[in-house]
User: Fold these one by one.
Assistant:
Number 1:
Amino acid sequence: MFRAMRRGQQQLSPEQVQAILERNTHGILAVSGDDGYPYAVPLSYAYIDGKIYFHCALSGHKVDAIRQQAKVSFAVVDEDTVDSARYTTHYRSVIAFGQAMVVEDEPERQKAFGALIEKYSPDQPPEANAKEMQQAPHALIVRVEIKHVTGKASRT
């Protein structure tokens, strides 16, 4: 169903892939957009229990696309260093394929929203984070159930 990596010697281990998804702060979500055009959008995310979560507005292009076609891909670039003397780049990245769905279960919504707050604002006082949690009903939480994931790094 999913293609094997052409340069298998550059494939990262599952542990390396997981570490990349856990430590990074943004990725690019690709969906099937309007009129069949791909739509790729950068976004902040949390990786929890093998799933990708993000929040978004209650309406818009991204949500409309997900509701039309749940299949998505999500890419995270962990390293991208230009080596001009060698005419190359040193890179490390992950791409996940999965099914995106709006989270309706309230405990799961709260857990994901809380994880996003903790990831992006860990230095804020608890009362500020609690106030931010009150905004959860004003946003959608989307979960990407990963069906296939690979990571790749340059070998120099």
Note: Helices lie at 14-23, 61-68, 106-120, 126-133.
Number 2:
Amino acid sequence: MQSGPISNLLLPLSLGIIMLGLGLSLTVADFTRVVRFPKAVFVGLTIQMVILTMVAFVIALVFKLPPELAVGILLLAAAPGGATANIYSHLAHGDIALNITLTAINSALSLLTLPFIISFALQYFMASDQYVPPPFQKIIEVGTIILLPVVIGMSIRKWAAGFAAKMEKPIKIFSVILLASLVAVSVWQSWDMLVKYFAVVGLACLAFNLISMGVGYAVPLAVKLPQKQAIAIAMEIGIHNGTLAIFIALNVLNNTAMSVPAAIYSLIMFVTAGFFAWWLNRQPEGQAV
């Protein structure tokens, strides 16, 4: 997997446009509600930062992954939720404000947790004590892509509510088309890598994705959170910032093989999240369990 125009320019630009559209559907009250009821944030962060790391470690052992790929899947688990989690949550009628809040908090916390988790993985699987610096620049980029367009969209809604309401549905349709196009181009661009590595790590990535999304949906429902929040957490847990994981593997760890799980997972998660959103939309409200 190599960085290219898709991951470096087109994807961030597209996500920025889509996040602007999401901002048109949000108000300040949506975020104050999340702050007033912190249980959902605590549950989401606990799953993301504790349970997922344990799941990734077990999967690496169960599938007997080669050391570099095992480190790669732990690196993926340590990466915060991706911006596209907000988009899929919107499509599935989840709590978008909760998604944005979780992504922002988890991205900040990952400055501390990500180097620790990767260092553990390197030492356990490769007997390496390589230092992994906190990815400050990438975290700032993620924050910019997510937060700035949302703030602009919310401002438009506040000062031009009629225009915001009129644009919400067209932008939602545009989001679906754009995401499908980006996934198709990414598959085409990465086809040789997929063919080479999928037999080795593909099933492990699929298992990690399905378990992540399943746990992210089931646990919130089990602790009596509203379904909209369960959907938001499931998308946040199941959709990782693969771009950040790939960047660290290539530019910090200087190891192409370690970027492979994130690259394959990034393609799988778009498909599974799409099916999950489709299934949720077919269920009567409150019965998608």
Note: DSSP finds twelve helices and no strands in the chain.
